[in-house]
Amino acid sequence: MEHLRILAKWLMLWVLSLGNKRRYLALRGTITLAAARASLYERRHLHFLGDVLKDGDTAVDVGASFGAYTAHMSRLVGRTGQVVAFEPIGDVFRVLERRMRKRGNVSCRRVALSDRDELGVELHIPILWRSLPEPALATVEDFDLPHDEETIDIVRLDSLSGELSAPDGASRSALQH
Question: Alpha carbon of 11 to those of 19, 20, 29, 138: distances in Å?
Fold first, then answer.
């Protein structure tokens, strides 16, 4: 099954996106969000969020990627709630931000969360099968696999607590990822 998934990604990169990584990531984002809406993507996790998030809540999506969880949480917390999505990878962030632009209760931040605040950290985005960027496996740790690098900032969630106050006195929050 894993080989089929990699083959599908390879075809998306080289056939549908003509080798353009930005187009490939945008296409992956579109497919991921469509799969989530059709309950084909991490169904149990998304269902669980429906048990813990209610209208007016504040939710945080750490490592938001293309926004499947962000979009679902946005629907769950409603117009009086808020979702803050964190995604450090530039190309993935642009897809996320574009997809969430019309949602008035979502704000997107291009930073990574950690146990410290640090500017200018090298993020390593693995390249699988010699050509496939895999943002889900990105890390600030050093490793010897082929990878792209990107400079990012990391922050502590605690340092952003003023931005995460629940509107209208709502008190619950959900952390994801």
Answer: 9, 12, 15, 22
Instruction: State whether the Cα torsion 52-58-59-60 is positive or negative.
Output: negative
Domain of 159 in residue numbering reads as: 2-176
| The model's pTM | 0.87
| C-alpha to C-alpha distance for 143 and 132, rounded to whole angstroms | 17
DSSP secondary structure string for all residues of 59-107: EEEET-TTSHHHHHHHHHHTTTSEEEEE---HHHHHHHHHHHTT-TTEE
Looking at every residue in the chain, the average pLDDT score rounds to 90
In this model, does residue 14 exceed pLDDT 60?
yes
Are residues 142 and 124 in contact, defined by beta-carbon separation less than 8 angstroms?
Answer: yes
Q: What is the domain count for the chain?
A: 1
